[in-house]
Write a structure and sequence with these properties.
single chain; about 350 residues; mainly alpha; Mitochondrial carrier fold
Length: about 350
C-alpha cells in the first residue's frame, strides 16, 4: 500500500489484520512446528531420524490431522498475543525515547531490539499456557481419540492446578527474548534496503538532471512529493508496529520484505533456540512426585526447573540435543513470513486503502 494511497485506518482494523495474519501464518507453519516438537521430545526419542522422516512417519501413521495436533490452543491465543506485543513494544519504545528532543527520530536498532525483547518476555504470559496445551496434544502419538484443547486444559487444571499452566514459564520467557533479534534484524534489513534504493534513485536523478546534488540530499520516491523528505521526517509513529511496517511497505518491494522477514525469523530462532528443546521437555511432562517416576534414576525430577532440565538433557544427550528441531524451525520461517505479509496487506488494503 503506497503512502499516498493510504487512508487513516481504524485501529481495530489494523489489530484485526495483524491477528488474522498471525493465525494464517500459524496454520501454515504448524505442521513443521509439530515435527520440531516431536524431534525434541523424550517420548518420541529415536522414533524419527530427521525432519523428512518425521514428516513421512506422522503422515503415514496419523494422517494429515496428525501434523495439526495442538493447533487450536495457539490459534485461540493469537489475538491476546498480538495485543500484548503491540502494546508492550510501543511502551518500551516510548520509554526509551521519553527524553528525545525530536519525536520523529528513528529509534536505534538497540532500542528496537530492547523493545522487542521486552515485548517477547511479557508475551510469554500468553505463550506459556497456550504452548503447554499445544505440546501436550502434539505428543499424543495415537492417530485417534485425540482430546480437545479444552479437555487437555481441564486435565492440566485438575492434576496440576492453575500453576500447571505456567510450567516452563522461565524457559519460555528466556526463549522469547529472541523477539528482540527479530525486530532489530527486520528493521535493520529494511533500513539497508531503503538506503540502497535511496542511493540508487539519487544517482539516477543526478545522472538525468546533470546536477551535482539533490536539493533534499536524497530522493525517496519521485512519484510521491511527500517522499522527497528525508526518512526521519515522514512522521511515522515508531511506537506502532503497524505504522512501522507500513512505512517500509510503501517503499520496498515484496521480495525485499520477504528477505527481511526471513532473516529476522532465522536470527530470532538462532539467538535463543537452545532454550526451546528445554521448554518442550519441561512442558511435555506434568509435575509428579519422584516415587511415581521409576524411569528416573535420581530422586530429583529432571525437568522441575530450567537449570535442572539443561543439566539433565546435557548429561543424557549432549549439546546436540539443544539444537534438536532447528531444521524444521528455520524452514518454517519462509512460508510463515510470506503468508503474514500477504494476508496483512490484503486485509489492510481492503479495509482502508489499496493493496499493492
Amino acid at each position: 500500500m503506497g503512502s499516498k494511497d493510504k487512508q487513516t485506518l481504524n485501529p481495530m482494523h489494523e489489530f484485526a489484520a495483524g491477528t488474522v495474519a498471525g493465525m494464517s501464518s500459524l496454520f501454515v507453519g504448524h505442521p513443521l512446528d509439530t515435527i520440531k516438537v516431536r524431534l525434541q521430545s523424550s517420548q518420541a526419542r529415536g522414533k524419527y531420524s530427521g525432519t523428512l522422516n518425521a514428516f513421512k512417519t506422522i503422515l503415514k501413521e496419523e494422517r494429515v490431522q496428525g501434523l495439526y495436533k495442538g493447533v487450536t490452543s495457539p490459534l485461540a491465543g493469537t489475538a491476546f498475543l498480538n495485543g500484548i506485543v503491540f502494546a508492550s513494544y510501543g511502551f518500551f519504545i516510548r520509554f526509551q525515547q521519553r527524553n528525545d528532543q525530536s519525536p520523529d527520530k528513528d529509534p536505534s536498532l538497540t532500542q528496537i531490539g530492547l523493545a522487542g525483547a521486552g515485548s517477547g518476555m511479557i508475551a510469554s504470559i500468553v505463550t506459556t499456557p497456550t504452548e503447554l496445551v499445544k505440546i501436550r496434544q502434539q505428543m499424543m502419538l495415537s492417530p485417534t481419540g485425540l482430546p480437545s484443547a479444552y479437555q487437555v486444559a481441564l486435565s492440566i487444571f485438575r492434576t496440576e492446578g492453575f500453576r500447571g499452566f505456567f510450567r516452563g514459564f522461565t524457559s519460555t520467557c528466556l526463549r522469547d527474548l529472541g523477539f528482540g533479534w527479530y525486530f532489530a534484524t527486520y528493521e535493520g534489513t529494511c533500513r539497508l534496503f531503503r538506503w540502497w534504493r535511496t542511493r540508487r534513485k539519487e544517482k539516477d536523478y543526478l545522472s538525468e538532471s546533470g546536477r551535482s546534488s539533490h536539493p533534499y540530499g536524497v530522493l525517496m520516491d519521485s512519484s510521491d512529493p511527500a517522499t522527497l523528505l528525508p526518512p526521519n521526517q515522514h512522521h511515522v509513529n515508531h511506537a506502532s508496529l503497524i505504522e512501522e511496517m507500513e512505512s517500509f511497505e510503501s517503499v520496498l518491494s515484496w521480495p525485499e520484505l520477504m528477505v527481511a522477514g526471513g532473516l529476522a525469523g532465522i536470527m530470532a530462532w538462532l539467538s535463543t533456540f537452545p532454550l526451546d528443546p528445554i521448554k518442550s521437555r519441561i512442558q511435555e511432562t506434568r509435575w509428579v512426585s519422584p516415587s511415581s517416576t521409576p524411569n528416573f534414576k535420581s530422586s530429583e525430577h529432571p525437568y522441575n526447573s530450567t537449570l535442572v532440565a539443561i543439566r539433565s538433557l546435557y548429561r543424557e544427550l549432549g549439546w546436540k540435543a539443544m539444537w534438536a528441531g532447528l531444521t524444521p524451525t528455520l524452514i518454517r520461517a519462509v512460508p510463515t513470513n510470506m503468508v503474514t505479509f500477504l494476508v496483512f496487506e490484503m486485509i489492510v488494503g481492503a479495509a482502508g486503502g489499496k493493496s499493492r
